[in-house]
Every structure is written in structure tokens, then in C-alpha cells.
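Workshop exercise sheet. Pairs work together: one partner reads the sequence aloud, the other fills in the structure field after running the prediction. Swap roles for the next sheet.
Pair: D.N. / O.F.
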Amino acid sequence: MIFRNPLKLVFYLCLLVVLLLVGYKIYLNLFTEDFEGLHTEQVERIDRLVKPGKPFSFAVVGNINNSVGIFENRIIPELNSSGIDFMVSAGNAVSGGGEDKYRALYGSLSHLDIPYLLTFGPNEYEEFGSFRFYNHFGPHFFSIQINESRLIFLDSTGKTPWRWQIRWLDDLLSRDNSKARILFIGNPPLEPDEDAPFDQREDYLQPPEFREALLKEIEQYKIDLVFSANLSLYAKEARGDTDFIITGGAGGLVLNNDTSFYHFVRVDVSAEGEVNSSLKRLGGAQNPILKRLEGLWFFIYSLLYAGYINFLLIVAVFAALAIKLYGAIFIGKDYYPDYDLDPAPWLERPLRVAMFTNNYLPFIGGVPISIERLRRGLENLGDKLLIVAPRYKDQPEAEAHVLRVPSLLAMGAKREFRLANIFLGRIRKRVRAFAPDIIHLHHPFWLGSLGLFVARRLKVPAIYTYHTRLEHYAHFVPLPGMLFRNLISHTLIKRFSNKCDGVIVPTYSTEEYLRMIGVKTPTFVQPTGIEYQRFQDVRRQDIDQLRHQLKLGDEKVFISVSRLSNEKNIDFMIEAIDALRRETDVPFRFLMIGDGHQRDRLQKKIEDLDLRQHFSLVGAIPPEDMATWYRLGDAFLFASKSETQGMVILEAMAAGLPVVAVRSSGIEDVVRHGFNGFKTPEKQDQWRAQVKKLLEDDQLRSKLASQALDFAKDYSVEQFATDVRTIYATTLALFSKKRKRSGSSQE
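Structure field:
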């Protein structure tokens, strides 16, 4: 199989490795078996293995450093088969003092068939590791007696005051009758004659007073062997009756030369207390030709080889970063649209368009009305449409162009929000049989997600219309409101938009929002069309009849159209109208058209304010009657901040109504302040002042009404359908070009 972008595949593989390894570290920290006080158990095992009056032997390893490749896979099998009685780590058994390192070490040590003891070294002390060492193994300094021999372990990290250790050591040895004495300390008390790789002053036993006092004790009490680690080499030096051995090649950093190599030390103690040590080097004879190159490889390998988990993690992170940097620096990018596209082949023939929407007629709302107008406009141009939408109780019986999907769940006071059963196989079969040229998505989730999936399976482009500002619908989501509003909603829109082949937005301010959240898909600004002529064809007698029906006299009439829901900001208008009636002598009525789950609460608020003579909740009005209701008004008032366009505002203008609205993304490009209405911040005094101005100034209201009517002429349904069809054709041309380019690159 040839992948379109192998580098991208490698990048995601690296991310997968990082996630798996981080997950493994979390597993080590939280879910592996707990262990504590292991030295007590190990000393008891040693007592059982070493018979009184008999010789014994043990291995000393240094700088294990959580190594799997060397310590666990190579040294441990040798120790298990060597016949020795136990093992001692001279220091740096872990690569760091973190809990995951200790648990990984415990896993490695579990492969040993013999007991073991650990020296508290510099790495064990890092990352607050001293308490972990104490809890998991035992004290930082201690001593044990084996037959006629004494093993002494000291703390060189500074965790334990050195004067206290010297006092303890002096008291211990002054009463000790052992024939052999072997001391273990993590940091070397002597500097080796050989050059230690990358050694620093602090790598040796500090402070100098501690070193001098310890050397005096070693000489006074004739200690036979002193083992230390911390340096990446093997070195042995005799001083008086004592051999000082540095062993640092059991898995950590080595150079693979004559002094720095992988090894361990075997110690044999006779029944009479005679001590002999021998070096056990890993590997056979080295090829002299490849020695230098092999040394370089061992250096790089062991530099990163703080256990294979860390090694793989580091490599994966660096590989992912390298790929990202390569893409950012070396891959050419063209941020301009592709002007070399020819949409003509698709404009010259009828198109087959499948639409997926989470709500549709008879549900009344901006999205269903927009879809219905687009459907009629496209069909008038000769195109074929299939709309995939939820099933409703009062839906029309004959709908050849609609595939109704039964609901899994209905929500809202009137069960207006429905989750269709997207798992039905017949949906995909029907759409496949319809054979769409393009799929148009009207929501970024549920049926919209299914539509995107079907588009990918059918290998046709998917275009998405951004209708709704999801962050204003947090109260409908069973998640913490701030989490959905500030993070999830924007991420959902971004991810979905970037998976589509094109995005239609109603205004330039909405396009700017999409760019700010990171949408990179080609974007087309296309306002939803309105049935302009229908608003001009309303008969005067129908308006008069409606006024009589509503018992309206000479008062001015304010109209608003909106779903009665929190995000529509109805409370803002109720409170503003309550204040306005006290500031003016001009009689007026406010007619709020629409229904929703907040109706009962809003009606109670109107009654509590004794506002029934000024503010009326009319309820839902059939779409075919809306033009008459608009024409009933003198001005249109709006306070919603959740719109992407505010289609009802354009409809109001088509009916000759000037508008007063709160500034928001859907208002900014439609309402021109002082030309076809007014837009204000969400401040009641400013909004109310503009409403009062239209209420009391007949000349101003007439002027703005005329200009609003002229403004709305450019938004006809016919022009809307023609423009969307051009967007379809452009998207199809781009999609076809990408497929041809992809196909040629795979050949």
C-alpha cells in the first residue's frame, strides 16, 4: 500500500510511540505491585544461602541505570548461571529517582535468581528519590555480617550528615572482629589514574573533609575492598592494604574503550576471610578496524540509554519534532486560493446534491428555513436534491426529496431537538443510490458527521455551512458550561471544518472567527437568501385584518422573531421595554414571534412586570404568514448574540423595517449603523435610546425603512441559489484537481 504522505504517517507513529510509552510510565507509577523494605528480605535470603564457615562469592555491578539491554538481558543471565551467592549494586541502579524508575528497577531485579543489595547513590537521590529508596529498600547506610565478613554501605549523596556516618562507622569497626571488610559507597573517594569520561568535581566523594575522614577510617581498620560507581569506567588502585575499585559499566554510559566498557566484578571470600576480586568484561575480542567506529556508536547508544523506555521515548519525541520542523521549513506553502480552477464543467450540467441536517421543516428555525429556500432555488435551476433529516410528528406526507430518519432521543419542551438514528444502514444505501456529486452538511456533529463519513466513502467532496455559534448553546449540553463554551465548541468547529472540502459562512465577521480558531479549509462568504418579492406582495387588507385581530389601535408596533431560548437574549429586551414605557409618551406594542422551552418563564416575567399591554409573546407563526406579520411592524428589534447572520433581520428589512440590534458576529455585516438601522453594545441604556429614537422620530424611521428595503434587494433566494451553485462547482473543481494530483503522485 502506498501512502499519500509517508512523512505524515511516520509523524503519527512517533506520536503513538510517545503516548504508549508515557502510558507505560503511568502504569509503572500507579498500577504495578507495591514493594517495601526489600533489603530485609534479601539479607534473610543471603543468610540462608551462605553456610557458616564456608566460602562465598558475590558480584558487584555499578551504574545499572535501568538498563534492559545490558543489565537485564546480558548481565543478569550471566549472574544467574555463574554460581555466585548474591549481587551488590555499587550505586546508580536507577537513571533517576522517580517512582517509575524504581518500579522499572524492581521489575529488572525480579529476573535475578539470587539475592541482591543496593548502595544509595547519586541517581537514587535525584527527584526526591531518597524517601523512595528508604521505603522500597531500606536505610541509606547500613551494615550486614556474612560469616566472618562484614559488608558496609555508606551514603555519599549528602542526604545523611557525613560526620554522623563517620561516628557510626568508627563505633561499628572498633567492636568488629570480622576477618574481611568490604565497603560500598556511591561516589569514589579517590580519583582514578585513567581519564574518566565527562567527570566533574562533584562526581567524587564530597566534601573533602568527608573523604579524608573516610580514608583515615579505611586505613585504621584495614578495610580490604572499597567499591564505588558513578563514573563510566573500570579502575582499580591499591592503597596500603586496601583495593579501591570503581565499577561503572553495568548499563549506563560507556565509551567502549580500554577503560570504559560494560562489565561487572566478581568477589570471592574464603572461609579464612581472604578476599579476591576479578573483572568480568562483557563481549569478546574487539575488531581493531571497527574499534573507533564502534566506540562512537556505544557512546551515542549509552548516552541515551537510560533504559530502553527512555531511549525510545526520546527518539520518538525528537523524530516528531524533526518532522514538524521539516514540514514548517522545507515544504513550500501557498496561502492564496487556487485561481487556476475551471468550474464550468459542473456549472453546465445539473448537479445532484445530498444535504444532511439535524433539523428541518416542520421544525421552524433559521437553519430549516435556509435549507428549504436553497432547495427550492437549486431545483428551479435544474438540480436534484436529497435531504437527510430527522422525522417529525407533523411532517408532510409526500416528500420525494427528503429521507426522514427516526429519532433515538427527542429533547426540549416540545421535543423540538432530535437525535436521529444515524446507525441505520438504509441511510447510506439511499444516499449511495442517489449518487450525489457533492454532499452539503449543515451541522458539525451527528447527522453532519454521518454525512462527512458518507462523503469520504463515496469519494465526493463535502461542504459545510457554518450556521450556528455553538458556544452560545452551552446550556443545552450535559457538560460544564465553561468547558464547552471556551474549549469544546471551538475545537469541534475547527476539526469538523478542516475535514471538509469547503466551508460556507454568511458574513465576513464569521469568516474571520473561523480563521482565528484555525480553520484552513477554503471558505466562501455567502449570506442566506430571502424571499424578497413575497414581502412586497402582501395585501394591505391582510395587514389591516391582522391589526384588527390583535386589537391594535394607533400605537407603533415593534416586531421581533426568535426562538424563546436563553441564547436569544429575550430577557434583555423585556427589561429594556419595561424601562422604555416610562421614558416615552408614544404608545407602542412589542410582538415577540416564536416559541421555545423558555416561554412559560418569560411569560411570568412579563406578568410580574405588569408589561402585558406592551409586550406580547405571539408564539409560532406559519412561514407562509410571516410576511404579513413583518409588514405589521414599524421597526424590528433584536438582541440575540448567537447568530451567524441573522436571517430574520434581512427579512425585516425586506418588509421595510429599520432594525435595532445588539452587536454580534451575525449583525455586524448586515446592519449598517444609521443607514438601515442601529447596532449597539449589549447595554440596555444605549439599545433603548436607539429604539426610543425610532419610536418618536417618524421622519428618521421612514428614511431608514426605505434604505433597509433597498439593502434587502441584493439578498434574493434566486441569487442565493445561483451563488451557492457556483461554490459547489468551484469545490468540485478543486476536489477533482486534488484527486488527479494524488493519483499521479502514486503512479
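Discussion prompt: Residues 189 and 215 are 8 Å apart (CA to CA). What would you look at next?
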